[in-house]
Amino acid sequence: MARTFQLEIIATDRVFYKGECEHLVITAIDGLIGIMAGHEPLVTSLPTGELKYMVDGVWKYAAISEGFIQVMPDKAVILADSCELPEEIDIKRAEEARQRAEEKLRQKQSIMEYYHTQAALNRAMNRLKISQKHFK
């Protein structure tokens, strides 16, 4: 039996997952990180990306937006703006958000508006990528 650790994934609107996990793979601000039981303590920020975690020998995937992760040898806690399973993603809504963000990027904006629009585009593109990659 594989060693497990406690994983908590908390989005702003819900507790996305709380339970045992065998392996976690996530993109951190400085690259891809694989986490297993006994991992060295770590705290880092998370960009918008893909979350992959193994429960009972089965990989599960999710689209995650900006947040933080704290890792201890027996526990990992992820705090994120949002986290969605591929089947929860509304593809039409994500496509509309992508189009709105792309159109807004073509317009003259302040630097702050530009960063907000770029973040919105990144979220929409990530949601589309995860839904197409893992939900058939």
Description:
With 136 residues, the chain is an alpha+beta fold. It folds into two domains: 5-84, F0F1 ATP synthase delta/epsilon subunit, N-terminal (ATP Synthase, domain 1); 90-134, ATP synthase delta/epsilon subunit, C-terminal domain (Single alpha-helices involved in coiled-coils or other helix-helix interfaces), CATH 1.20.5.440. It has helices spanning 91-105, 111-134, and strands at 5-11, 15-21, 23-28, 31-35, 42-46, 49-55, 58-64, 67-72, 75-80, 83-84. Strands 2-1-9-8-5 form a five-stranded mixed β-sheet, with no helix packed on it. A five-stranded antiparallel β-sheet has the order 4-3-6-7-10, with helices on one face. The two termini are 30 Å apart. 24% of the residues are buried. The model has no long low-confidence stretch (mean pLDDT 89).
List keywords for this structure.
alpha+beta, 136 residues, 2 helices, ATP Synthase, domain 1, 5-stranded mixed sheet, 2 domains
Largest sheet, strands/sense/barrel: 5 strands, mixed
Distance between the termini: 30 Å
What is the total tally of β strands? Answer: 10
Quaternary structure type: single chain
Whole-number mean pLDDT: 89
Helix content: 25-40%
State the name of the first-level CATH class of the largest domain: Mainly Beta
Q: Name the CATH superfamily assignment of the largest domain.
A: F0F1 ATP synthase delta/epsilon subunit, N-terminal
Strand order of the largest sheet: 2-1-9-8-5
Question: If you consult CATH, what is the topology of the largest domain?
Answer: ATP Synthase, domain 1
Number of helices: 2
User: Which residues sit in consecutive blocks of at least 5 with pLDDT less than 50?
Assistant: none
Order of helices and strands: EEEEEEEEEEHH
Output the structural class.
alpha+beta
Strand content: 35-45%
Radius of gyration: 16 Å
Under the CATH scheme, the architecture of the largest domain is: Sandwich
Shape field = globular
